[in-house]
Amino acid sequence: MSDAPDSTGSTLRSARLTVLAGPTAVGKGTVTAYLREHHPEVWISVSATTRARRPGEVDGVHYHFVTDDEFDAMVAADELLEWAVVHKQARYGTPRAPVLEVLASDRPALLEIDLQGARQVRERMPEARFVFLSPPSWEELVRRLVGRGTENEAERERRLDTARAELAAETEFDATVVNHTIPAAVEELVELMRS
C-alpha cells in the first residue's frame, strides 16, 4: 500500500475506505464540503438519493438525485454498496463501482453516510475505518437543526427522533470526532485517515 501526499505535504494511508456517519444535523455535509475543498487528495463518494433537491444543491456534486424507479433499478442490479430509507422518507445509497475503482487506484476514500448505511458497509467491508461524527451536546444538535431552516416542524421532530437512536450507536464505531468547529473536525478526521 502506498501513501499519497496531501495538500500540506503529509501523507495519507491510501486504499482504505473511511466511513463517516453521525446523527442528523451534526454537520456531516459541511465537514465533507470543507474536506473536499482543503484536502482534494481525498476522494469523497457521492450518494444517490430519492429526496428532493435543496436550494443550492447540484446533481452529481452533492448527490445523484434519482427517481424512485431509478433507485429501484440500482437496487435490483446490486449497484449499491449500501442503501437505506432515511427519516422514514427518502432512500439514500452509495454506488458501488466508483468506490471500488478509487480503492483500486490507491487513493484515500471517504463515504459520508447514515448509520444504517454504515452498518451495511461494515458487513461488506469490515476492513474499512468507521468514524462517528458527534455534536458537542444534544442542545447544540437541536440548535443546528432548527437553525438551518430546511425542514418544517414535523420533519424536525422526525429527524430528532432519528438522532436520538443514532447517538446511541456511537460505540459501534472505531473512533469519534466531536464537531466543535468544522476545520478542527476535518483535521482530526484527516489525522485518523493518516493513522
What's the number of domains? 1
Q: State the CATH superfamily name.
A: P-loop containing nucleotide triphosphate hydrolases
What series of H and E elements makes up the topology?
EEEHEEEHEEHEHEHHEH
- Based on the coordinates given, report the CATH architecture: 3-Layer(aba) Sandwich
For the largest beta-sheet, the strand count, sense and barrel status come to:
5 strands, parallel
Strand arrangement, major sheet: 4-9-3-10-11
Strand content: 15-25%
* CATH class descriptor name: Alpha Beta
Based on CA atoms alone, the radius of gyration comes out at 16 Å
What structural class should be given to the helix and strand makeup?
alpha/beta
Oligomeric state as shown: single chain
Number of strands: 11
The dominant shape is globular
Average of the residue pLDDT scores: 88
Helix amount: 40-55%
Contiguous low-pLDDT stretches (5 residues minimum) are: 1-14
Count of discrete alpha- or pi-helical segments spanning 4 or more residues: 7
Q: Cα distance, first to last residue?
A: 13 Å
